[in-house]
Amino acid sequence: MSYPLSLPTTQPLITVTHPSPTTWIIELHNGEDSRLTTTLIDQGLKPALDAVEKHWRNDRTKAMAAADKNGGKGALIIVGKRNQSKFFSNGLDYDSIKNDANFFTLTFNPLLKRVLSFPIPTIAAINGHCFAAGMILSLACDYRIMTDGSKRNTWMSMNEVFFGAPWPLSFASLLRAKIGDARLHRKIALEGHRFTPAEALEVGLVDSIVKGDTAAILEKAQEVADRVCGNASAGVWGLIKHDLYRDAMDGCDRELRHVTERMYDAAAKARL
What we know:
Elements: E1 5-7, E2 14-20, E3 23-28, H1 38-65, E4 75-79, E5 87-89, H2 94-97, H3 103-116, E6 122-126, E7 129-131, H4 133-140, E8 143-147, E9 156-157, H5 160-163, H6 169-178, H7 182-190, H8 197-202, E10 208-210, H9 214-228, H10 237-244, H11 246-253, H12 261-271
Parallel strand pairs: 3-4, 4-6, 5-7, 6-8, 7-9, 8-10
Antiparallel strand pairs: 1-2, 2-3
């Protein structure tokens, strides 16, 4: 595998690098705010995840053949655009996907399942605002490292309640899998609270906050990667997660229809 790997090849929206023998980094760089589009997901993130997994599995196979007990280590970091410290991801490019009835079923939910059950530890390096589907993507990762917001105001937020976008079942299933407090569910989903980095750390949305720019956040993410990468060696990291988050995985599979506010309103009026 040759790095850096830029995808899609015709108009790169993500870049994969391999800075150490046990670490891969996926950088999101769709414009300034790394919005998640069908093209970025289907032609960028998904093949990038496949490339990382293939490389790790090949390395692990070689290590096993050589009876190398230290082989098979691996971790993946996902970060927003490196040359800025304002956005991890601003969520979905809503205008481009709102009329695609199959977007969650065929595009986004399979991505969530892929990240949720990825066979090596995943770390979201949240180097700026983390909104809506960007926050969901970060929650699908195993660890979250966030800027402390000292250089610029930074928030995590699920703000769909404010612009009339109903949650797909996958969002609610993943939130319940990762966050156990019903009061926090309410604050996230129904109040659309903007969590500062300090608040996100206090309630457990992130594992650590870091002072500094994207380089400092990546440095801390690399520390986490170095600490946990050995847990992938035995080959069961993804298998354990698949069962640990089975309800969320099933929720991703049960996305049968996308109910809009207008459909909901019309049905309610017809019933009343």
